[in-house]
Amino acid sequence: MTGASPKTVYLKDYQAPDFWIQTTRLHFRLEESYTEVRAELQLQRNGTHSRPLRLHGQALELLELQIDGLALAEGDYTQDEEGLTLPQVPDRFVLTSRVRIEPHKNTALEGLYMSRGLYCTQCEAEGFRKITFYLDRPDVLSVFTTTVVASEDFPVLLSNGNCVETGRNADGTHFATWHDPFPKPAYLFALVAGKLSFIEDRFVTCSGREVTLRIYVEEKDLGKCGHAMRSLQNAMKWDEEVYGREYDLDIYMIVAVDDFNMGAMENKGLNVFNTSCVLADPATTTDAGFERVEAVVAHEYFHNWSGNRVTCRDWFQLSLKEGFTVFRDAEFSADMGSRTVKRVSDVQLLRTLQFAEDAGPMAHPVQPASFIEISNFYTLTVYEKGAEVVRMIHTLLGPELFRRGTDLYFSRHDGQAVTIEDFVQAMADVSGRDFSQFMAWYRQAGTPVLRVEDHYDPDTREYRLTVHQSCPSTPEASAVQKQPFHIPLAMGLLGEAGALRLRLKGEEPGPEVADNTHRVLELRKPEETFVFCDVPERPVPSLLRGFSAPVKLLYPYTAADLRRLMTLDEDGFCRWDACQQLGLKTIERGLVRHDEEATDLIEAFALILEDPNLDPALVALMLELPSEAYVGEQQVVVDVDGNHRVRKSLQQQIAAALQRRFYSTYESCHRALQGCSEQVNAETVALRSLKNRALSYLMLTDDPESLELCRRQFDQGGNMTDVFAALTALTLSERPDVEMVREEALNRFYQRWQHEPLVVNQWLAVQASSPVIGDLARIETLRRSAAFDSRNPNKVRSLVGVFCNQNLVHFHSPTGSGYAFLADEVLRLNRQNPQIAARLLAPLSKWRRHDPARQALMRAQLQRIAAEEKLSKDVFEVVNKSLVETEL
């Protein structure tokens, strides 16, 4: 990048705004090739200072500027690339501006843009400044009234709040005026205009108010909105029952658009969604897709309180709304389905991707201390780790005190822009607990490591558990500078027959202790020892139950220990994790000994398949080996080729050894699902997940019967879950008799679903992720095909993102071709959509984790990107931090 480096913003430099905006009146006139925006802002000076008014504004053509109705001359203000400065203004005044923007040229999908004939906005984090001149910061809250004027080519005109007026103008245009009575920052503004249809329903709140619910989509997609509507109603009911939060407007709207950088956006009363998070139909959507729709709809609805009514003071507080709301949506999903399966799924994401983020050059605390481009901090650390931090507070306080804490937080700060400290203080005030040490979770980056040692004395019947905690160096602080964390460690002890009662030394025996087989230890020091009394035999410790803290746990479990956990532990997460650990140990041995046999793993999997008491969905998860990405995260130097070779070999051994059991499992699940192919509920989803796990293993054998089974499921599957599982199994099979069947299936799948964009995205992703067929040549061919559109973020993620993040053996080709391919894509998108470009860079940012040859190739591509003359702030920040020489 040439020229001056972008400016770094620091949390320590925060200052309250110089002015407040009491009311905002917006008037949009949507023309064919441009839009005119008239903004009338009622401003008030904050304090007695005489500083000038500085408004944010980017790519705006200023047509008119007035103060209290008087036009300003050019010498009364200055305009630059980042905004507008007015040196002298009254203490209270009305500023009126009129600007022209060009939404149809807006490929970055920030601010107001066109999406396939539809006007749409995305203002979080700093997109509103591309619409009009404004104090575009989250601590400036204003009451908005918005009028949208357009021709009849745009019959639906939507904005935030309640619709207060509609009508027609003499020039043939029509208009709609929306008023939002709740003050909000500009990032929560939304506008949608175009040809849309909607489904409508109602919800009666706990106080008896009737709320209109609408989901707007293209007419062809009306039949795919039912699940989203049910999810919304369930979320509204759940939030009333669990958090006491009632919806506050007369109408709640969701609009689905195909071109969207994020999953969804919680704009007040008018949520704009990516179509992938709204549309769901058994014929075109997998069970995982249904679950995603439910979770995202709930997440955005929950933001109405945790993010909208109480919002962020500044963007360093992003996890205040996102971490808290992710925790809320995770609990909702757990209540709607299987709590254990939901927990396992969340931990898989955290341990594979967020832990990697914590160990990379972009590592940052949940509450970052600085940033160059805020869009780069919509990260797994802010969202997923932030949710884990809230979960730990919930664990420490218990559900009753936590609810009292949230009640206090919402009542104390309703209508305010606040901080993470305000949230934690509410928890401290209701509980009387000191959370000062706990704040390290928000302020220190990195994944803590717990190293556990134990000793059992059969004579005294005492069991001693010693826990050491540490945290590795991260860009903001070395390991020696890190303060110890306050860590809740949920645990139990298992004897040969099952759970043992727990009593700490010095603790008086009583009824509350007598039946206690589970407890939460609180770690606060670098090293702590806990002594349990009256332990009748040497136990196996069940540690980190429910994944009670986002840490890495090191304990020398034997294969026998892990089998005990898998079969006897009362905690479903620990049963799954024992399978993962046994799988990881087996892979690690296989990297050293090429003839390693998976005897322990096969025996354990056989026991799991024979256990009739286990949830089929949990069994499916337990039978899955650790991913290549997760295995690589455990290594100092990632062994890309070795991890792929050994994992594939283990899968084939398991498939061959348990072939008859997998057939039996498949058939029993298939019989149980007869007549239920289009049903999507906890039971059918669980049975399909186990049936398709069995099919995936069967397709790794050379038995012709398995190919016929897979072909039949692809041809006759009554839902997308089964059809796509069969297609996936075909793309992962190396059998010579599969090749023609696979290519025919891929062609037929595309021909049938080519007019369904979300299904085509799955078709792209299944090929991009396959180590069997997804080499770079195929990816390049797909990129040039009609199925791909580089302007659509969903397609970029489905092809480029999946290839670079999941197809590790081909992306990390020793030739470096995968790295060059990604760099080319980043440079293209840098000019078109900087947000997506920056997010794609993650695989290259981990160059230090690889062998010297790959390091050199990856670094060369980062340097090529860094040399680009016009590099966006988004890409500049990621590349610059990736190339900094400081070792983590």
Keywords summarizing the entry:
888 residues; alpha+beta; Immunoglobulin-like; eight-stranded mixed β-sheet; five-stranded mixed β-sheet; 32 strands; 41% helix
Your description of this structure?
The longest helix is centred in the middle third of the chain and has 21 residues, at 572-592. The mean pLDDT is 97. 41% of the residues lie in helices and 21% in strands. The relative contact order is 0.07. It has an eight-stranded mixed beta sheet, with no helix packed on it. Strands 17-18-19-21-20 form a five-stranded mixed beta sheet, covered by helices on one side. A four-stranded mixed beta sheet has the order 30-26-25-32, with no helix packed on it. Among the domains are: 19-256, Sandwich (Immunoglobulin-like), CATH 2.60.40.1730; 310-443, Neutral Protease, domain 2; 449-484 and 486-555, Aminopeptidase N, middle-beta domain (Immunoglobulin-like, Sandwich). The chain is globular, with a radius of gyration of 28 Å. Strand 7 and strand 8 form a beta hairpin. It is an alpha+beta fold. It contains 29 helices and 32 strands.
Question: What's the short version?
Answer:
This protein has 888 residues and is α+β, with helices and mostly antiparallel strands. The protein has an eight-stranded mixed beta sheet with strand order 6-5-9-3-2-12-15-14, with no helix packed on it. It has a five-stranded mixed beta sheet with strand order 17-18-19-21-20, covered by helices on one side. Strands 30-26-25-32 form a four-stranded mixed beta sheet, with no helix packed on it.
